[in-house]
Design goal:
28% helix, disordered N terminus, 23 strands, globular
C-alpha cells in the first residue's frame, strides 16, 4: 500500500472508531439493538480500502451544482436516496477537500464528524434495516484533483475555459459526497449552473437548459436513468461546440467539443453512429438511452475515459481506435461494472479486444496478428492481469494480456460460442457488477468445459509462457 492509501485507511479507521464509540453510548454498550450500529467507513477494497461505505445502498443521486470557473468555486446540494442494509445509528460518505455546510436525514438535522475524506453522519433517529431514507448534504469550496498511486490525476480538473470532472478510480469524491465504490451503482440527476456563455455537459440526457439569476447564469439539467458507478459520472464546463443527432431507429447522440478543436474533431464525431451500430452487432443491444462524447483540448486532459454514455477524449486521442475502445466500455465496465477494483481487467480486456475485432472487420488485420504483437511486448508480462499491484492498477497487462486471455478463450471454445459470449456476458449481467470468478465460471458454463489450464497460464500465471 502506498503512503497516501495508508493515510486514507487510517483516517477511515479513526472515523469508524469515533462513530462506534458514540453508538455504544447511545444503545447501552454494543452498538446494536434499537439504536442500530454504524455502517463501516470504507469497504476495505484491497486497492482503495477507504472508498465506499457500509450499511446502505444508494438508489439515486440528485446533485444541484453551482460553479464559477475563475475562482474555482463550487457550491452543491447532494440529495441521496438510499436503502439501509442494516439497522443504522450512523453512516459515512466519501468527500475530498470540500467543506460540509450542513446535513439532514429524512428532513431532520444530523450531526456530522469529519476525518480526512470520510464524512460521518449521525441521524437524529436510527434507520431501520431495509428502510429507504433521504440524506441532503450542503457543501462548498474549491474542488481539487486527486492523485493516484500511479501518479495520474483525476477528480476536478481545471481547464482553460472551465473544468472537467473525471472519477476513475477515486476522483468522484472530489465533487460530490457519496458511496464511491463501483459496487454501489445508482441513477443520477445532475443540474449544473454556470456563467452565461458556458455550457455544462454531463451523463445521460439533457432535460432542460434555462437562464437563471436574471439571465447572468444558465442551468443545465441532466438525467441518467440507468444505474451508474460513481467513477463514471462526469461534468464538463466550458465553451463547447455542441452537436446532436438521432439516427432513424438509433440512439440519440449529444457531443460537446471544445471550440478550439471542433473542426479537427468533426470527422471522428460523425463516425459515432456507425461505430455504435457495429458495436451493437457484436456486443448486443446498447445498454443506455443516449450516447456521445466530450472532447477537450489536449492541454486540458491527457487521457480518455469511458464516462457513462458520454466518454471524454483529449483532442489528440479522438480517433477511431479510442472511439471503439470507449464505446465498448459502455457494455464492459459501465453496464457490467467490477465488483472490486481487482476486477478492472475485465473492463479493459474487452475494450482492447474490441479494437482487435474492429481491425479484423475494417482493416484486414486478424486478431491473431494483434495477439502475436502483444505477446512479444515485455510490458504485458509484468504481472497477471487478474492480480494487478496496488501501484499499477491500470498497467499494460490489464489491457494487452487481458485481451490475450479473451483471444485464448476464442481459440478454446470456437467462433460461434465466443461471439455468443461477447453478447451473453453483458446481457446476463446488465447494469450489475461482476468479478473475475463470475466471469471464469460463466465462460466454463457456456463452453461446457473446464478451462483451468487456460486461467492458470494466461490469467493468473507469472511470466510469459512458451510461445503458442
Amino acid at each position: 500500500m502506498d503512503q497516501r492509501s495508508l493515510l486514507r485507511a487510517l483516517a477511515s479507521a479513526a472515523a469508524l472508531l469515533v462513530l462506534t464509540a458514540s453508538a455504544c453510548t447511545e444503545s447501552g454498550g454494543d452498538g446494536a439493538g434499537a439504536g442500530g450500529r454504524p455502517g463501516a467507513a470504507g469497504l476495505r477494497d484491497p486497492y482503495f480500502p477507504g472508498l465506499g461505505n457500509g450499511g446502505y445502498d444508494v438508489q439515486h443521486y440528485d446533485l444541484a451544482l453551482d460553479y464559477d470557473p475563475k475562482p474555482n468555486r463550487l457550491r452543491g446540494t447532494a440529495t441521496l436516496t438510499a436503502r439501509a442494509t442494516q439497522d443504522l445509528s450512523a453512516f459515512n460518505l466519501d468527500l475530498h477537500a470540500l467543506t460540509v455546510d450542513g446535513v439532514t436525514v429524512n428532513g431532520a438535522p444530523a450531526a456530522v464528524d469529519r476525518a480526512g475524506n470520510e464524512v460521518g453522519v449521525r441521524p437524529r433517529e436510527a434507520i431501520a434495516d431495509g428502510s429507504t431514507f433521504e440524506t441532503v448534504v450542503r457543501y462548498s469550496g474549491s474542488p481539487r484533483t486527486v492523485k493516484d498511486p500511479d501518479g495520474s490525476e483525476e477528480g476536478w480538473l481545471r481547464t482553460e475555459d472551465g473544468a472537467l470532472a473525471l472519477g476513475e478510480p477515486q476522483g468522484s469524491m472530489a465533487w460530490f459526497p457519496g458511496n464511491h465504490h463501483p459496487s454501489d451503482k445508482a441513477a443520477y440527476d445532475i443540474t449544473i449552473t454556470v456563467p452565461k456563455g458556458l455550457t455544462a455537459v454531463s451523463n445521460g440526457e439533457l432535460r432542460s437548459q434555462r437562464p437563471v439569476a436574471g439571465g447572468s447564469r444558465t442551468a443545465f439539467a441532466w438525467h441518467s436513468p440507468e444505474p451508474m458507478a460513481s467513477y463514471l459520472a462526469t461534468v464538463g464546463v466550458g465553451e463547447y461546440d455542441v452537436k446532436t443527432s438521432r439516427p432513424a431507429g438509433g440512439v440519440p447522440e449529444f457531443t460537446a467539443v471544445d471550440r478550439t478543436v471542433s473542426a479537427q474533431s468533426e470527422k471522428v464525431r460523425a463516425r459515432i453512429p456507425e461505430v455504435l451500430e457495429w458495436a451493437q452487432e457484436n456486443f448486443g443491444p446498447y445498454p443506455f438511452s443516449s450516447t456521445g462524447a466530450i472532447v477537450e483540448r489536449a492541454d486540458d486532459v491527457n487521457y480518455a475515459l469511458e464516462t457513462q454514455t458520454r466518454p471524454v477524449y483529449p483532442a489528440g486521442a479522438f480517433n477511431e481506435e479510442f472511439l471503439v475502445h470507449e464505446l465498448a466500455h459502455q457494455w464492459y465496465g459501465n453496464s457490467v461494472s467490477p465488483k472490486s477494483w481487482k476486477d478492472v481487467w475485465l473492463n479493459e480486456a474487452f475494450a482492447t479486444y474490441a479494437e482487435w475485432l474492429y481491425d479484423e472487420d475494417f482493416r484486414g488485420v486478424p486478431a491473431q496478428k494483434r495477439f502475436e504483437k502483444e505477446f512479444e511486448d515485455d510490458g504485458n508480462w509484468a504481472f497477471p492481469p487478474a492480480e494487478p499491484p496496488t501501484d499499477d492498477l491500470l498497467g499494460a497487462p490489464v489491457y494487452g494480456r487481458g485481451a490475450m486471455v479473451l483471444h485464448k478463450i476464442r481459440q478454446a471454445v470456437g467462433e460461434e460460442a465466443f461471439f455468443a459470449l461477447l453478447k451473453g456476458w453483458p446481457q446476463d449481467h446488465r447494469h450489475g457488477n461482476a468479478s473475475t470468478e463470475d466471469f471464469t465460471a460463466y465462460v466454463e458454463e457456456k463452453a461446457g468445459e473446464d478451462l483451468t489450464g487456460l486461467w492458470d497460464v494466461w490469467l493468473y500465471g507469472d511470466g510469459r509462457p512458451a510461445k503458442p
